[in-house]
Design brief:
It is an enzyme of class 3 (hydrolase). This protein is about 25% helix and about 25% strand. With about 400 residues, it is of the alpha/beta class.
Amino acid sequence: MPSAARGTARPAASDPHPAADGTPLVLAGAGVVLPTGIAADGELVVDGARIAAAAPHNAPVVDLSGHWVVPGFVDLHNHGGGGASFTSGTVEEVLRGIRTHRLHGTTTLVASTVTGDMDFLTYRAGLLSELAEQGEIAGIHFEGPFISPCRKGAHSEALLRDPQPADVRKLIDAARGRARMLTLATELPGGIDSVRLLVEHGVIAAVGHTDATYEQTVQAIDAGATVATHLFNAMPALGHRAPGPVAALLEDERVTVELINDGTHLHPAVLELAFRHAGADRVAFITDAMDAAGFGDGRYLLGPLEVEVSEGVARLVEGGSIAGSTLTQDRAFKRAVTVDRLPVEDVVRALSANPARLLGMDDRIGSLEPGKDADLVVLDAHFDLKGVMRRGEWVLDPRLG
């Protein structure tokens, strides 16, 4: 637990955004979650856009006694927020959605699309790749159209297709090197060959929205699939005679399992089962957020499908299937610690270190270490979000809230 008080010989910072002008800044007094453990009454130095090993004696200090400082959150699977869709919004709307999640601690975000026709998806890939090139997002995740009609969830069945490698290649090419992940039902015709194609091009192959058997899922993992898209959701339940994809994905150390920790998608006992069985190094908490995240209840479109959001739960108007979430990563963090009773260090792995490693970005993000980007989140003693810093600049200044 962070210490309640701290004395310091350095002067307190008076500029409301001292980190933005490149002046070294010291964040002091918090419980700082490091790769080696929790540094109680810790100190973190920000120098420009990076974390530094030391600061000049007269560097300004932000006293964060009684708080936590954790790495910025990394969201692998996010469809939008702030009333904006990453699948269909304008550039300005997409930027608003990104900004919404940054204000909730997500300093690195992969923009996810939903099922559409191929021409539309290749167009969206081009638009989103430009935002990736500008550093606004970490890349693109294609969820659909190569998924099972039996497990389509909130995807339009009329637009689904088998994962033929030629079509998969079209999306990869349209993303101009910015495709990070593609979710597919690997049991469909072309599925295994498409997994191999994705691996060849450095794109994560994720098993999801699948009706695969246990044996078919093992085959996909052996071909190179390394992620379970929102484990348990949109796949057969774990059975005692037909274990299905859940058992195969949970048991294999090569697989990172996505979990949506919003209290709606997963029962707490199921989340605990997955977390304990996979282990803290193989879980990635995701939002699977849609437009309503950080925005409010109402009617929305998810691709071509109409969604009703009521009391924060998104469901298709026709059929009632859960349609993504309204989750933000700060809420996922608080729930994991206060409801699921997971250790803070394990939650940090699931929200930051593990997805950063999966993306191949752990040399820059995912942990608080000298030389890495100054991406961090400040939480109070109750794990409520109070501050967000991205690349050394306050997105949300903890002293102004």
